[in-house]
Queue: 3 jobs
Job 1
Amino acid sequence: MEEEKKENEPQQVSRPSDMCHIPIKVIDAVDGDEPIVIRDKDLVKYIGPLARAVGAYNPNWEEHAIDVLPVKIPFKKEHVLFMFDTVRKYQQPTNETRVEIDYPETVDKDLDFLKDIMTLCQYCECDTLHGAIAYVAAQRLNNIDDVKVIADYFGFECDPNQSILDAKDGWMKVDYPE
C-alpha cells in the first residue's frame, strides 16, 4: 500500500543549481511568439526589479535553480534585447574620461531609440547603462545646431528667438511646462 502511494506522488526533479529559465514577455509580442528567455543568472543581477521578483519567489535563487512564470517588461522586444546585450558591456563615462568612448551597438541607433533605452534602463534600474546611453545621446545632441530639434527631443516648448542664456551668470534658463 505504501509503495502505491509513492508511485502516485510527484517526483522531485533534480536540477543543476546553475540552471536559469526566466521567460520575459514584452509589449509588442504577438500571440504565439516565444518569450525572451534569460538563462544567465549573472544577467539577472544587473536588473534590479527582476532580481527582486526572482528573490521573492526563491530567496536563495543564486544558489538554486530558477524556473519561474513569465515576467512582463512593458517595453518593445528590440529595446529589451538591446539592454540585455549591453548592460554588462557598457560603462558610464566619468569626469576623468578624456578619451573617446566607443559604444559600437549605438552607431546605427537614432535618438528616439536611445531615449527609449534610457527609459527602459530607468524602469529596470540599470543606472550604469542609462548613464552610458545618456552620454551617447548627449554627444549626438552636441552636434545639432538647431535648438528647436533639441527642445523637441526633451519635450520642451522653444522659441528660437528667445535668449535662454543669462549673461549675468552664464546659466541656461528654461521655462518648464507645468
Job 2
Amino acid sequence: MADRIDESWGSQMPNQRVVLPLSDAARASLLAVRAAQEAARDRARRQTKRTRAWLGGIAGGIAVGLLVFGPRVGGHDAPAKAVSSSKLPESAPVAVVAVEAAPQSAPAASPSAEAVVLNAPDTPESSDAPDAPDALPDAAPGDDACSASFGQRRWRLSIEACTQAFQAQPKNAALALRIAHAHHARSRLAEAADWANRAIALDPRLPEAFVIVAHAHTRAGNPAGAVEAYRRYLVLAPRGWHATEARAAMRAHLREKHARMHPTTPNTPRTTAVSVAAAD
C-alpha cells in the first residue's frame, strides 16, 4: 500500500517544489536578518544625504569667501602686476609719405602768415565761446552820447558824438575804435581804416580794428595788406568771430601768389599744385 501511495504521488506532482514548514525559531531569525538589512539601508541613505549637504555647504562657503576676500588675497596691486607682466602689443608703424620739395627759385610765403593759416583750426566758431560781432571795449566815462548812439546803431550821430568825446580824451583807444566801426557800418572804409589805425596805435590788442583795416585793404586792391591785417587779427583772436573769414582770405591769397609764381603749362608737371592743395 505504501509503495502505491509513493508512486501515485510522484507521478501526479513531478515538477512541484515541496515547501517544508519552518519552526518558530527559524522564522524569527529570518525576520531579524531582514530588519537588520533594512536598518543598514536606512543608515546608508541618511549618511549619503548628510555627506551631500556637508559638501554643498563647503562649496558655498568657498564661493562666498572668494567673492568677499578674493581681492584682498592678491593685494590691491594685483591688476597692475598682471598688466605689467603681460606683454603689450607694439603699435603699428606710422606711415611716412615723402613730399617732393619745391624748387629753390620759388620763394615761400611769409612764415608767420602761413603758420597761422595752416596750423590753426578751420572752424573756430564751432569751439569755445567766439568773440561777439562788433565786440568793442568799453570807453571811458563821460561818453554817454557816444555810447547811446552807438548802441542804437545811429552811425552818423555816433560818429559826431564819439569824435567829440575823443577830442576830450585823445588817448582813448575804445573811442577811436567806435568811430572806426561807425564809419565801417556806413561803408566809408577809408575813414574807418584811418580811425582803426589810430586805435591800434593807442592799443595794439584790439582784434576788431585789424578786421576793419583788412576790409579797407581789400577794397583798395591791396591783398598783401589785407593778409597782414588778418594775420594780426588771428594772433589776437584765433577763435574769434572773423577767424574763418580771415583764414579763407589768407588761403586765397597764398593760392593766387603761388599760381603767379608757378604758372601751369602743358609741359609743366602739376606736382607743385597738388602739394599746395594737400598743404591747404
Job 3
Amino acid sequence: MDEILRLVTLNSIQRLVFSVLFVTGFSIQGISSDKTNIIFILIDDMGYMDSETYGSEYYKTPNLTRLASEGMLFTNGYAASPLCSPTRASIMSGQLPARLRMTVAITSKTNNVAEPQATQPQASWNCGDVENRHHLPLDIYTLGEAMRDSGYHTAHIGKWHLYQSGLGNEYEPFILI
C-alpha cells in the first residue's frame, strides 16, 4: 500500500479517497502472490441494513457475508453525491464531483455525445453558467490507472456511467491492463 501511495501524488482529499478504497477493497486481482487482492463493491441504493453482513435478518447474502468474514469491513463512509455518476467519478479520480463538473447522472444510452443529458435536467443553481461534463476527462489519473501502474490487473464489472456511449475504450481505465 505504501508503494502505491508514493506513486500517486494527489492532494489530501485524493489521498483520503485512495486510502478508503484500500481499506474497503477494490475488484482487482494482483499479478503476484505478495500483492493483496482487493475487491471494492459499490452498490447504488443499498441501505446499511440490506445485507446479513451488517445485521439484516431479512435479506440473506451469504456470499457477501463470506467475503466480509475473510476480509475487511468498511463501516463508516461518505458518498460524494447522491447520484451514481458523480459518486463513481469521485471514487475514480479522488476529486469532488463539482471540481470535475460532473454533478448529474450520465447514461450510456446517448449515442450523440454532443446531445445534452436527457434523463436529468441541470438545475440552474447547480453550476451557474458552467456546463456539466458528460464524461470523466481523459487527463484525470484514475484509480484504475494507479492500480495498473502498481502492478495490478484491474477489472470493472457492472454499470460504468462515466461517459456516454460512442466515446471509445480509452474512457474505461480498467481495461488498460
